[in-house]
Amino acid sequence: MATQKMLKFVTIGREMPEKRDAATRSEDFHEIYREFADAKAKEQASRCSQCGVPYCQSHCPLHNNIPDWLRLTAEGRTQEAYLRSQETNTFPEICGRICPQDRLCEGNCVIEQSGHGTVTIGAIEKYITDTAWEEGWVQSIAPAVERPESIGIIGAGPGGLAAADRLRRMGYQVTVYDRHDRAGGLLIYGIPGFKLEKEVVERRNKLLADGGVEFVLNANVGEDISFDAIRGKHDAVLIATGVYKTRDLDIDNAHARGVVRALDYLTASNRVDLGDEIPDYEDGELNAKGKRVVVIGGGDTAMDCVRTAIRQGAQSVKCLYRRDRANMPGSQREVQNAEEEGVEFVWLSAPGSFSGHVTGEAMEAQERDVDETGDIPTISSVRIQKMRLGAPDVSGRQSPELIDGADYDEPADLVIKALGFEPEELPRLWGVDGLEVTRWGTIKADFQTHQTSLPGVFAVGDIVRGASLVVWAIRDGREAADSIVGYLSGAARVAAE
C-alpha cells in the first residue's frame, strides 16, 4: 500500500526557510532567507491539501499549477516539479523571491483559512528553480525552426523579457530596446539585492542573449532612436516600458536639497551594489550613511527604501504613512522584516512641509534673500501632520483626515519620496500620432490581445495597468507574445493570398 505523501498539514507545522538574524543581514545586501534543504522542501510541500478547487492557483495571476508541483516536490520528483512550474511562469525563481505571496497564493491557501498556516509556496517555488539551475535542468533557447518575422520590444523589464523568451523559443527574431545599460528594468535597478540578488536576473538575461535575443541598451526611444524607426525595422512592436514618472508632493520646499525620489535612491544603491561608480552616492546625496532618514509612503517601494537606508548605515530610519498598519498597501511580511531591522513606522502621519536652511555663502550672509542667490535650501526637518481615518472613499478604504493642532517637527537629513509611479507621456515624448492613452496616461490596449490603437503595436505591463506587480507583467508579456504570433500568422496569410 502506497504511503500518503500529502495532506500532512495536520501533523507538520508551517516553516519558512531560515531567516538570517536582523543584526547580520542589516550589514549587507544579500537575500535574507536561506535556501530550503531538500528534505525540508519535501516536508513543507507535503502539507498541501491538494484541493479540488485550488484557490492558490486561481489567485495567482499566472494560474501556476501550484498543487501539481507541490506534490511532485513532496515525492522527490524535483525536476518534474520544475518542468511543471515553468510551463506557466517564465521566471519562477524571481516570483518565488519577490511576489507578495501573502496577498496572492499563500493568502488564499485553504489550510491557511482553516487555521493551520499556509503552505510556503513561494519558498518552495524558489527552491525548485534554484535547484534546476544548479542541476542544469534549465534548457537553453533552441527553436526547432527559425522564422523570418521580427519583433521589436521596447523595455527590458519583466513584461518585455517574458515576451522575448516566449517569442524566441517559437523561432521569431527578437530585439529588445532599453534606456538603461543593463537589461532587467526594475528587477535590476529598482528591487534591492536583499530581496532579489542581481545574479538571479543576470543569468536570465544571459540565457536570453545566448538564445539569440538581441539587446540594444542605452537606447532611449525618442532621443537615441525614434519609435517610427523601430516600427519600420520590425513586423510587430511591443511596448513594455513600465512607469517611471514619480508622483510628487505639493508642499513647501518639496524640492529642497536632501529630498530625493525613491527610484533615484534605489537605482543608485543597486548600481553601487553592481560595482558602478555613482557620483551622487559618493558625495552623499543618495547615501543614507549617518543620516536621519524619513521615507514617505506605504507601498513595497517604501519598504525597499527604508531597508536600504538601514544597510547604508543611517542614524535612524522612520517611515511615514497616512493610514494605519491594517490599511498599508505594502506586504505585511516586508513591514515585519523592516521592524526587525530597526525601522520605526509612524502611522497616521503625513508631511505638511519641509523646513531647511541654506548653506555656504547664503548661510553666512543671512540678510540676502535666498531666492535671489539661487541657493536651494537643505532639508533639516519635516513638518508632520497627524491624521485619523474617516469615512470610506470610493475604493472602500477609510480616507485620512487631518487632526488640527497636532503637527510637530521631525528632524531629517534625508527624505525619500516613495509615493508611487505614473506613466510618462509616451505619445508626446516619442512623437507618435494615433497611439491612444487613457485618462490616466496609460496606453489603451485590449486586455485580452494587448493590441493598441496602432496596427501591429502591442503594450503590456505597468504602462497599461499602472504601477502593479512583476507577476502581472510576466502574465501580460506571455499573453502578448501569443497575440503577436496570431497577428503575424494572419498577416502572413493575407500576404500569401
Automatic annotation (TrEMBL):
Residues annotated as domain Dihydroprymidine dehydrogenase: 26-136
Highest taxon of the lineage: Bacteria
Domain FAD/NAD(P)-binding: 152-477
SUPFAM superfamilies the UniProt entry points to: alpha-helical ferredoxin (SSF46548), Nucleotide-binding domain (SSF51971)
Pfam families documented for this protein: Fer4_20 (PF14691), Pyr_redox_2 (PF07992)
Keywords assigned: 4Fe-4S, Iron, Iron-sulfur, Metal-binding, Oxidoreductase
Listed Gene3D superfamilies: Alpha-helical ferredoxin (1.10.1060.10), FAD/NAD(P)-binding domain (3.50.50.60)
Name used for this protein in its record: NAD(P)-dependent oxidoreductase
Organism, scientific name: Paracoccus broussonetiae subsp. drimophilus
